[in-house]
């Protein structure tokens, strides 16, 4: 058996050795035990079920939420000479019938199906007639409401397996598992005393960085100038931001593509292919892009906005450097990202655990604000016990952090908000403080306020940024949908009376000239 697994690894995949975790998981599956493999993106989870599929009699059913990738995965297997097929909504009637025919003739070693398909009555009947040796559940965290990609159909998987004439082995895989998600996977997929392995979450080759208080687009432009030939991803939180960043980069002549759920299926697959096959080096996308993408030479993942939690961040960032070569993950943080995420939590449906989401959001914000080692922060979050608190490969370990007292600025801003009767939004307040001659400002008589122009030496973005920070810290409140207005919270008065000081942290990047708040 020992030889067989190595022979298959060499013959089909061309590798001499297993990576840590692969051999252990394969051995346990082949000994007849359920498994749960918790391995970071790029660790090589697929081989852990593909090799057992080849060794065992019968067929392996792979449940995967990644409809757009099934074809690629199956094509890769076919190229290697492994009989495989997929069933999802993209098949024509004829193709579907052909695959079903192939299943009846025991033609395949692996069949990939979407969880929604797995639930269908007709499909269960077909499966019931097959000899299924293994059910591999990819992206298993989708079963848990605590995970970041909850898919209701995943919760039905265990029921359906019970309907089969005999229970196959179940192998579940995920890149993301906080202890609570881990427990959910075992419980909801009804894994039987699974052999569980966590291969460790550290991605040593990735440099982590948080950048604050910089113009985001300028930073990206500068970064791309310095890394011209490299391939990378830029994640934005909304389709609108994707469109705008994409356009600006395209106008500057970069080879860039975009991807989000608002594009047609054709546009999306074209973009994806161009990026995968290096026709374009940069992909600007929402989180709709990337789950399961097998592109090993992604050198950087830049986050234009802060994601809603650490799981999402680490999964997206983890797409960098799958080949093990040095890669960069930079999160461009601004307090407005916190405001946006809070808004999204408030808008979410009633069955979402809002308190839980807020907790995760604050842990993400803490990551952006921590002065400690970023890697240590992430690893501790996922439950890896990390003793070494200086990794020397993140912006906290490599940079000096400066605390800047912004109490005076905050007082000026807040008294201006008050004098404008708490009826205007960030842009208008910032214009008044800057002393803008904008006709809106003068027509409302704001040029006569004592706070008019008291921050004229500041950049307008800096004023807005401090306002964003005050909102994120719940010192100033923003309300209203279309034209949000600013109002002072309780603690604002403590600051105005001088009972409370406010500081923000700014990273002093070595070798890079420091930019100040002022013009
Ligand atoms: P995951 O599903 O964990 O994100 P994949 O299964 O897509 O990762 O594998 C990531 C990459 O690692 C693929 O290019 C795969 O061919 C490669 N890989 C997997 N196992 C090995 C191995 N034992 N040796 C070398 N490369 C491997």
TrEMBL record:
Extract the signal peptide range: none
Protein family per UniProt: Belongs to the helicase family. RecQ subfamily.
InterPro entries per UniProt: DEAD/DEAH_box_helicase_dom, DNA_helicase_ATP-dep_RecQ, DNA_helicase_ATP-dep_RecQ_bac, Helicase_ATP-bd, Helicase_C-like, HRDC-like_sf, HRDC_dom, HRDC_dom_sf
GO MF term list: 3'-5' DNA helicase activity; ATP binding; DNA binding; four-way junction helicase activity; hydrolase activity; metal ion binding
Q: Where are the transmembrane segments?
A: none
Report the protein name in the record. Answer: DNA helicase RecQ
Keyword DNA repair applies: yes
Per the UniProt entry, the Enzyme Commission number(s) are 5.6.2.4
Q: Which PROSITE patterns match?
A: HELICASE_ATP_BIND_1, HELICASE_CTER, HRDC
Looking up CDD domains in the UniProt record yields:
DEXHc_RecQ, SF2_C_RecQ
| Start and end residues of each Helicase C-terminal domain | 216-365
Q: Which reaction does it catalyse?
A: Couples ATP hydrolysis with the unwinding of duplex DNA by translocating in the 3'-5' direction
Keyword Metal-binding in record: yes
Record Pfam families: DEAD, Helicase_C, HRDC, RecQ_Zn_bind, RQC
| One Gene Ontology biological process | DNA replication
Per UniProt, which keywords does this protein have?
ATP-binding, DNA damage, DNA recombination, DNA repair, DNA-binding, Helicase, Hydrolase, Isomerase, Metal-binding, Nucleotide-binding, Zinc
The cross-references to SUPFAM superfamilies, in alphabetical order and at most eight, read: HRDC-like, P-loop containing nucleoside triphosphate hydrolases, Winged helix' DNA-binding domain
| Domain Helicase ATP-binding per the UniProt entry, residue ranges | 26-195
Q: What are the names of the required cofactors?
A: Zn(2+); Mg(2+)
Q: Which organism is it from?
A: Natranaerovirga pectinivora
Gene Ontology cellular-component annotations: bacterial nucleoid; cytoplasm; replisome
């Amino acid at each position: 058996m020992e030889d067989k697994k190595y022979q298959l690894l060499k013959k089909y995949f061309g590798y001499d050795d297993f990576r840590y975790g692969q051999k252990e998981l394969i051995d346990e599956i082949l000994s007849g035990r359920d498994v749960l493999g918790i391995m970071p993106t790029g660790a090589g989870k697929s081989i852990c079920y593909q090799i057992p599929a080849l060794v065992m009699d019968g067929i392996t059913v792979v449940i995967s939420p990644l409809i757009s990738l099934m074809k690629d995965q199956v094509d890769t297997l076919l190229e290697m000479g492994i009989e495989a097929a997929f069933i999802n909504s993209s098949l024509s009637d004829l193709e579907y019938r052909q695959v079903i025919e192939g299943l009846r003739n025991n033609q395949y070693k692996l069949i990939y199906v979407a969880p929604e398909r797995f639930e269908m009555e007709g499909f269960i009947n077909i499966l019931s007639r097959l000899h299924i040796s293994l059910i591999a559940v990819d992206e298993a965290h989708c079963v848990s409401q605590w995970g970041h990609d909850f898919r209701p159909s995943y919760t039905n998987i265990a029921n359906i397996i019970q309907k089969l004439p005999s229970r196959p082995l179940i192998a579940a895989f995920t890149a993301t598992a906080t202890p609570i998600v881990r427990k959910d996977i075992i419980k909801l997929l009804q894994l039987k005393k699974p052999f569980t392995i966590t291969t460790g979450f550290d991605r040593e080759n990735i440099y982590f960085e948080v950048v604050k208080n910089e113009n985001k687009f300028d930073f990206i432009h500068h970064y791309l100038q310095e890394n011209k030939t490299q391939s990378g991803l830029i994640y934005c939180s909304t389709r609108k931001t994707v469109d705008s960043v994409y356009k600006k980069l395209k106008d500057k002549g970069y080879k860039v593509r975009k991807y989000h759920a608002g594009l047609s299926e054709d546009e999306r697959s074209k973009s994806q292919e161009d990026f995968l096959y290096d026709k374009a080096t940069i992909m600007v996308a929402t989180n709709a892009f990337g789950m399961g993408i097998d592109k090993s030479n992604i050198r950087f993942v830049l986050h234009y906005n802060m994601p809603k939690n650490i799981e999402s961040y680490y999964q997206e960032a983890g797409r960098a450097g799958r080949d093990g070569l040095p890669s960069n993950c930079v999160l461009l943080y601004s307090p407005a990202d916190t405001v946006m995420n809070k808004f999204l939590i408030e808008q979410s449906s009633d069955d979402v655990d809002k308190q839980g989401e807020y907790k995760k959001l604050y842990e993400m914000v803490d990551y952006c604000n921590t002065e400690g080692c970023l890697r240590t922060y992430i690893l501790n979050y996922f439950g890896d016990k990390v003793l070494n608190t200086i990794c020397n490969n993140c912006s906290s370990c490599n940079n000096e952090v400066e605390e800047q007292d912004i109490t005076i600025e905050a007082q000026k801003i807040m008294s201006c908000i008050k004098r404008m009767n708490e009826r205007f939004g960030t842009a208008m307040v910032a214009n008044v403080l800057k002393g803008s001659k904008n006709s809106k400002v003068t027509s409302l008589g704001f040029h006569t306020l004592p706070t008019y122009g008291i921050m004229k030496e500041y950049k307008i973005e800096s004023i807005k940024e401090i306002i964003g920070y005050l909102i994120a810290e719940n010192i100033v409140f923003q309300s209203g949908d279309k034209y949000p207005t600013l109002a002072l919270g309780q603690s604002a008065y403590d600051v105005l009376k001088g009972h409370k000081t406010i500081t923000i942290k700014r990273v002093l990047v070595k070798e890079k000239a420091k930019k100040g708040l002022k013009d």
